[in-house]
Amino acid sequence: MKYEYKHQRFSNSENSSRKPEETSLQNDSATSETDKKPLHNNSIVYTDTVKNTDWKKHILIIDDSPVMLRALQGILHNNYHVATATSGRIALQYLRKKSVDLILLDYEMPLEDGPIVMKKLRSNPETSSIPIIFLTGVQDSTFVQRALSLKPEGYLLKPVNTATLMQRIQEILP
């Protein structure tokens, strides 16, 4: 099986005339597509396009940590078509063009945290029915109650236990 991961890093400066640097890591059967324009500074977007696997359900992972995105993508890519976004803004732009079967959403992110992103998703008729599982390292009961009040389909603590994650996804996406 072949996978090629590509990502673009963008400059910190709004006025930078430097073009994004593109890097890729090849492994063996599908190709990745990446938007050619920066969506905002310091963004990294990974989108796998897996060929001849139409039977796979589509999962969007929204997390500001590229390390967490790659780890979750590594866990899920054999069973699911996986797209990732480093912010809610990027995810909302992605969802204007693509549909997904499930969203894994980081609770704490800069600019817009998980609950704000979830409220935006729930307020849009096109995305309101997408199941969402929160992923977070926050164990404070106030945060947990705030997240659960939004009625996500799940709430898992980081570091994510692979078996628990897969079980929860399979319950939501039979």
Fold and architecture overview:
The protein has 174 residues and is α/β, with parallel strands linked by helices. It has a single domain, classed as Response regulator (Rossmann fold, 3-Layer(aba) Sandwich). The protein has helices at residues 66-76, 88-97, 114-123, 141-149, 162-172, and strands spanning 2-9, 21-26, 29-32, 46-49, 57-62, 80-85, 102-106, 132-136, 154-157. Strands 2-1-3-4-6-5-7-8-9 form a nine-stranded mixed sheet, with helices on both faces. It starts with a strand and ends with a helix.
Strand-helix topology:
Elements: E1 2-9, E2 21-26, E3 29-32, E4 46-49, E5 57-62, H1 66-76, E6 80-85, H2 88-97, E7 102-106, H3 114-123, E8 132-136, H4 141-149, E9 154-157, H5 162-172
Parallel strand pairs: 1-3, 5-6, 5-7, 7-8, 8-9
Antiparallel strand pairs: 1-2, 3-4, 4-6
Quick structural overview:
The chain is α/β, with parallel strands linked by helices and 174 residues long.
